[in-house]
Structure formats: C-alpha cells, structure tokens
Design brief:
Strand content: 15-25%
CATH superfamily of the largest domain: Histidine kinase-like ATPase, C-terminal domain
Number of helices: 8
Structural class: alpha+beta
Oligomer: single chain
Length: 227
C-alpha cells in the first residue's frame, strides 16, 4: 500500500480537478460526436446542447475554484508573456463557435492585428470563458469579442445583445467585486476575475475589469483592462 501522506492539499486538488476535467471532456466529446456524425438525432434531442453547455460550465468552475485556492495560499504564479490579441480572441471565438451555432447565435471578433498585451494566457482565458458562458446564456443572437488600445491600457471587451447587466449591479462597483452567498448569482465569476487581474500589474498600473452596456450590440459589456 503506497503512502500518500506527503502529498500537499494543493497538489491533491490539482490532480483531482485534472481527473474530473478529463471525465467532463470525455462527456463533451461524446455529445460533439453525436452533433457531428448524427445531426438528425441531435436535432431530435435538444437537451444535448444544454448538457454540453452545463458540462463546460462545470469544467470552467473547477478551474476557477482551484485557481482561487492557489491564489489564497500564495501558490498561483502567473506566467506573464506577450500575446497578440487578435490571435488570442480568434482562438477563443473558434472554441465557442460550435456552442453558438447550436443555439442559433453568432460570435465574431473585432481587433487590429497589431494589438499585443502582456498577460498569463491560461488565466485570462479562464476569465473570458466565464464571461462568454454568461454572455451566451443571455444573448439573443450575437456575441462580440473586441479589443482596442485605450491609453495606457489594452482593453478586451466581451459584448452581447441580451438585456444587459442589472442597473443595480452597474451602479454598485463593490457588489460586482464581492461574493453574496445568499444571492442566486453568487458573483464567483466576478471575484475570480478580480483575483486573477490583481496578479497582472506594472509598477504603476494594475489590471482591472468594468461592467457596462455594449456600444455595439446594446447588451452587456464586460471589459478587461490590461496594463
């Protein structure tokens, strides 16, 4: 019998999350195989799409919980590097194209090919995953990934044509950055974004996010400001 007493909690959580994510990805793969190879059957089973969406949501939340634990313990070390924003957003767009198509929605990217920013690709990608899940849930027909330079920040916008964020949330910046266990929407995604962005900073500037209304589509707009 092997002795696992030397394994610390962070390592144990990482292994567990990795194993669970593999199981979830296997489930997602099965659903996608039905959608691709048996489209007629997939159309007769509309719950397939929601099963896939829920599975992806669970997978992304596991990543968030692990990252938050590591951040709390001081174990989360971002790997900051320069990335082209156009390529980064196009890859994210391609990743969600299938889900959008299944829900009869579209997703597009507006970004100058020359725009670059310094960030941890995996961590910022996780913030986009959380935000895109929410946008996909509330959008009527369109989602937009947009990037621009607004001195001194590179800004990524995730926009949709849904009803937008509630007025009380837009009016209360503190609420957007806190967790309310009594609320139906706990704010875990916002808290996760705040925690991750706090790791992205220069000597004079820190990354942050804002909530607003989309100038392009009229719905919600989640904006990430990277120094």
């Amino acid at each position: 019998m092997s002795n696992h007493s030397g394994i610390d909690l962070a390592t144990l959580m990482s292994i567990s999350v990795h194993d669970i994510k593999n199981d979830i990805n296997h489930l997602i793969s099965k659903v996608e195989n039905i959608e691709i190879h048996q489209p007629a059957l997939a159309q007769q089973l509309p719950t397939l799409s929601s099963i896939k969406t829920d599975a992806i949501h669970i997978s992304n939340q596991l990543v968030q919980v692990l990252a938050l634990y590591k951040a709390k313990e001081g174990l989360l070390k971002p790997l900051i590097d320069q990335h082209g924003l156009s390529e980064f957003l196009e890859e994210k767009c391609a990743h969600y194209a299938g889900q959008c198509k299944a829900q009869h929605k579209s997703i597009s990217v507006v970004c100058d090919d020359q725009l670059c920013a310094f960030f941890d690709e995996a961590l910022i990608s996780s913030i986009l995953d959380s935000t895109l899940e929410n946008a996909l849930r509330h959008a009527k027909k369109q989602l937009l990934l947009r990037a621009e330079y607004t001195a001194p920040y590179q800004v990524i916008h995730i926009e949709d044509d849904g009803p937008g964020y509630p007025d009380e949330l837009l009016a209360d910046a503190i609420q957007a950055n806190s967790i309310d266990q009594d609320s139906r929407h706990t704010g875990l995604g916002f808290y996760f974004a705040q925690t991750i962005l706090a790791l992205h900073h220069t000597p004079k500037l820190s990354a942050y996010f804002t909530l607003g209304r989309s100038s392009q589509l009229g719905g919600a707009c989640f904006s990430i400001f990277l120094p």
